[in-house]
Amino acid sequence: MRKITLQLEPLSCPSCIKKIEGMLNKMEGMTEARVLFNASKVKVQFDEKRVSAEVIEKSIASLGYPVLSKKVA
Amino acid sequence: MNAKRTTWLTGIAAVLLASAFLLQWMGYVDARNVLLLLATGAAGIPIAVKAIRSLRMKTFSIELLVTIAVIGALIIGEYVESAAVTFLFMFGAYLEVRTLEKTRSSLKKLVDLAPSEATLLKDGELQVVSADSIEEGDRVIIRSGEKIAIDGRIAAGRGLVNEAAITGESVPVSKSIEDQVFSGTIAENGYLEVIAERVGEDTTFARIIELVEEAQESKSITQKFLDRFASIYTPMIVVLSVIVYLFTRNIEMTLTFLVIACPGALVISAPVSIVAGIGNGAKKGVLVKGGDIMERFAKVDVVVFDKTGTLTQGKPDVIDMHVWGMDERDFLKQIAEAEQVSEHHLGQTIVKEARKRGIVLANAPEDVEIVEGAGIQVNSGKRQVVIGNRKLMQKNDVRIEKAAQEYAAEREHLGNTVVFAAIGGELAGLVSIADQVRPEAKDAIQQLRKNGVKRVIMLTGDNRMTAEGIGNVLGLDQVHAELLPADKVSWIQKLKKEGHRVAMAGDGINDAPAIAAADIGVAMGEGGTDISMETADVVLMADKLDQFAHAYSLSKATVRNMKQNTVFAVGTVALLLAGVLLGKVFLAAGMLIHEASVLLVILNAMRLLRYTSRKPEDRKKRDRKRLLVE
């Protein structure tokens, strides 16, 4: 189990939360995905055997939210 | 679509729109229409892209409504309308992001305080490394003006450290060997060598940031209500617009209705106030752990304090000495030498006082006898020294004169503890020791009362005499002494049953049950001890009671701000919809007002960032007082 925190560009509409969380939670190997609206961060817990940090980052970016930086723990 | 490109497209649309109006003024209608179509495209494509993306995620978005409205406008040939609406929508979104960033700025300022590099002393060499790569046990060098990257203990050097990032207090603190320093604080001058104890995400500073981020996310009751409201509101508006169309057969009016009804300002009205309020607190050293806590805190009418460490400093001090027949310094030297072996906190206080006055304690005591619950008897420098309470004096046949009796009684009435000391069988002096009341306590309690607290109560495990002394000094409504932690909990439960909203402020593990039982638990942070930071609803990072008073008035201001925003947002949408139905408000104008209302809501919340609980006149008065003192 690993944890990753991604910093996005400032989020402005609360509906973005649902969009990003909905997409991530449908992904394979996801334990928990949470969007911090005010900090514009996404915190994800995932199974590194089934999905990689790069795939998570790419999926968020392709939804229209470029990732500025990320921290894997 | 990244932020920069969107900003560019909005700018291009603005230029096209302005040129179009110029052409119209010059009479070129066809050329004008071309420019208007281009402007619609420039600003409209990002909107349409977002709309399609969220449609693929099966979510209903504001962008979708706008896209439908713009396509509708294009079909009926309203090019001015379509260009104006897309531009206003994009420009509004741009301004929203910019202003929202401002409301979040206090947290960003905090985050920026964490340094990215540090200097290590390794194998006798200095190395500059990134802050992330420091490990526990590394020796970190901090020079004058540098930020500290880790939590740790000073191994060498001394200096003045500004701990505002942790405590909100900007007066620098003097630190030397064995003192604790925190990540995010700044060494204003001096030189420090620090052994790293906590690094990276484990530092107090990193945990504060994380707590604040989580707090800003947690939803207030009002916010939850608004979310639920928005989720029935949006489909309701769709149904209503269908009804509008069936009645009027007017596509333009229906589309306008649909776009104007978007709950933009409504959805954002509560969260921006909370974010700004929590940000203000964090900057001033108060962690309020969520929007719901803000709302509950604002309703508090009874405040309960623990005594030791909360209303008082938690460190006993020698307040006064009364000495007969010898020099005060000499007296202190003799009894302090005797007390060197004592483990009792009163004894240690006497030793500490002697050291503070620069007295060298040379003679180690001989024949030490510790009398449990009474004091200490030693032979020091060939003379017998007896230090302790009245009982110990009586046991040793030491006579206590009337003057001494009176002095002792007087000090005890003030809540001090009086220690008797006899040298060579004669009473030589009295030492009065007290855990002093925090200097800001009285003002803070007054401010709490002014802001709506009806009763201030102290619950303590200490003896009745001391407790009542402090109750008198601070003018508390009730004082209950000699309580066990469980008794404190039942007092809080009793107050809650009477219908009060209770805040409980305490400092240690012994207060944790009472803190948990209260409606609002307030903990002294002491630079971040684990238990207090996790269990409490509100943490005072600098252990200062005026932060408590500030947090209370801040919570009231935040709730007030949130209400203003909600009323304003609901009112604007209602008025606009009425205007649309009466045929007075059209798409572009409606969009302009709609975006303006969102901005006003954010701007109103931004006022909270600058909120100070002291009125300007109070501050002036205080400054004048300070001048007089100096």
From TrEMBL, chain A:
- Determine if Transmembrane is one of this entry's keywords: no
Entry-linked InterPro entries = Heavy-metal-associated_CS, HMA_dom, HMA_dom_sf
Gene3D superfamilies recorded: 3.30.70.100
Question: What is the designated name of this protein?
Answer: Heavy-metal-associated domain-containing protein
Query: What's the superkingdom here?
Result: Bacteria
Entry keyword Metal-binding: yes
Q: Which residues form the HMA domain?
A: 2-68
Alphabetized UniProt keyword annotations = Metal-binding
UniProtKB/TrEMBL annotation, chain B:
Taxonomically, the superkingdom here is Bacteria
- Domain P-type ATPase A span(s) in chain numbering: 113-213
What EC number(s) does the entry state?
A: 7.2.2.21
Q: Does the keyword Membrane feature in the UniProt annotation?
A: yes
Membrane topology reported for the UniProt record: Multi-pass membrane protein
Q: Which NCBIfam families match?
A: ATPase-IB1_Cu, ATPase-IB_hvy, ATPase_P-type
What's this protein's name? Cd(2+)-exporting ATPase
UniProt organism field: Sporosarcina aquimarina
